[in-house]
Design brief:
The complex is a heterodimer of chains A (226) and B (204).
Chain A: H1 20-29, E1 35-40, E2 43-49, E3 63-67, E4 70-76, H2 78-99, H3 105-118, E5 130-138, E6 141-147, E7 153-155, E8 158-161, H4 165-175, H5 182-196, E9 203-209, E10 212-217, H6 218-222
Antiparallel strand pairs in A: 1-2, 1-8, 2-9, 3-4, 4-5, 5-6, 6-7, 9-10
Chain B: E1 12-16, E2 20-26, E3 29-31, E4 34-37, E5 43-47, E6 50-56, H1 58-79, H2 85-101, E7 108-116, E8 119-125, E9 131-134, E10 136-139, H3 143-153, H4 160-177, E11 185-191, E12 194-199
Antiparallel strand pairs in B: 1-2, 1-10, 2-11, 3-4, 5-6, 6-7, 7-8, 8-9, 11-12
The chains are: A alpha+beta (226), B alpha+beta (204).
């Protein structure tokens, strides 16, 4: 017998072996505005559109700095994304306290994955309605990772999350080349992003190369190097 | 906390060379004025390219080394690539520091040496948790004598073969004059190709 008032709050399997609360949360993440990431030789980039500009509002940021070498963009509930970004920033600083070096991307992503996964194991909590793309550089190389509600971690050459990401992925699948240059990669990512979601709002670009991550507007990212 | 730098009966030496690192130690364990053991191992591998030389309380040092060995392996499994020498030194020093802060210090000094993608590295971690980056270093009651040899003989660009010779001479000199050191020299050489026990020092 469940305690009164907690019916349905338990995270339990359906008879056919599914966790529907987790599936609903994953569905929520599919309504967020899309993010596309592409990795090439010596770099990783991600692009995302900010909210439609409003003269009364300051622009909201979509790509978040975690540490000097890592950035995150999320799709889904803004509050859940912010919680994850905060968590990532704390983990990055914790790593610096222990090792006096910036955290590597894999370790950060594993920790975020564990964090998200915990919400699928217990009752009376709500699985996070957010997917993340994490890109960054460390001494191993440049990386792109994707995280979802379940705590599932994917990595690869090109990834997309959020609304209509299937369209973006099918475009990436057709046009990605292993020897793609950075400007072309940004162009391809923006094209894939636009295939998922029309819009005129500004595009944010995150670039990881060398050992650093930088965030900029699209114009700056495509400027010829001075 | 003023007497935190306790005298530890041992001689250990670590030397950074152009192509790797050398660790050397004597084999004596002292129990007060008595020789407790004549065949103690004081150099422990952490993984295939890193090792720690220990001085001080054998139990404390063993405990720390075993803990860090386990921690290093778990981290490597998790992230897919091994720790740097500095990271191993930091893991050790964090425990040493918290020991000191909690009035239950680990009575030990550790020389952490190895080869990682930044090249050969030697670090020293002391009882207070301080970590220093060194080219050559020595610890234990025999270190003043060992330093005499190291200061006179060390130069940049040594090969591990030359480094091993100098390290051996440093420990031997200490064994001649320091009652806390003796009973043979153990030498471990680490290059990018791996770890090799060059001389077990007359292992019993």
């Amino acid at each position: 017998m469940l305690p009164r008032g907690s019916e349905g709050a338990y995270m339990m399997y359906t008879p056919d072996g599914r966790l529907v609360q987790v599936e609903y949360a994953a569905e929520a993440a599919k309504y967020g505005s899309p993010v596309v990431a592409v990795r090439g030789k010596g770099f990783a980039v991600m692009v995302a559109r900010t909210k439609e500009p409003d003269p009364l509002l300051d622009p909201m940021e979509k790509i978040h700095m975690v540490d000097e070498n890592i950035g995150i963009a999320g799709a889904g509930f803004t509050g859940d994304i912010q919680l994850l970004v905060d968590q990532a920033r704390v983990e990055a600083q914790r790593h610096r306290l222990v090792f006096e070096d910036p955290i590597d991307v894999r370790t950060l992503v594993n920790q975020l994955g564990q964090f998200m996964y915990q919400f699928t194991r217990y009752g009376n909590v709500r699985p996070l309605g957010a997917s993340l793309i994490v890109i960054g550089s460390d001494r191993v190389g440049n990386h792109i990772f994707q995280l979802d509600t379940r705590g599932l971690i994917l990595s690869g050459k090109a990834l997309a999350i959020g609304k209509n990401s299937e369209a973006a992925i099918s475009m990436l699948r057709g046009e990605y080349r292993a020897d793609i240059a950075m400007k072309d990669a940004i162009g391809l990512a923006v094209k894939a992003l636009s295939s998922a979601e029309d819009g005129e709002s500004p595009v944010e670009v995150g670039i990881a190369n060398g050992i650093s991550f930088r965030k900029m507007c699209l114009k700056e990212a495509l400027e010829p190097v001075a | 906390m003023k007497n935190i730098h306790v005298v530890v009966m041992t001689t250990i030496v670590a030397v950074k060379c152009a192509d790797g690192v050398v660790l050397a130690s004597d084999r004596r364990a002292s129990k007060g004025g008595m020789i407790g053991s004549k065949s103690v191992k004081k150099i422990y591998p952490i993984d295939s390219r890193k090792a720690v030389a220990i001085a001080g309380q054998l139990s404390d040092a063993n405990y720390l080394v075993n803990l860090v060995k386990a921690e290093a392996k778990l981290i490597e499994f998790n992230r897919g690539f091994p720790l740097t020498v500095k990271e191993v030194a930091k893991l050790l020093s964090n425990m040493l520091y918290s020991g000191m802060r909690n009035y239950a210090p680990y009575i030990t000094e550790l020389l952490v040496a190895g080869v990682d993608e930044t090249g050969p590295n030697v670090f020293e971690a002391d009882i207070s948790g301080a970590v220093t980056d060194e080219t050559f270093t020595s610890s234990g009651s025999g270190s003043p004598m060992a330093y005499g040899v190291l200061e006179a003989s060390y130069r940049e660009g040594l090969t591990v073969k030359e480094g091993a010779e100098i390290a051996k001479r440093a420990v031997r000199s200490a064994m001649e004059r320091d009652p806390g050191s003796g009973n043979g020299v153990q030498i471990v050489v680490i290059t990018k190709n791996g770890l090799e026990v060059l001389d077990a020092g007359g292992a019993a």
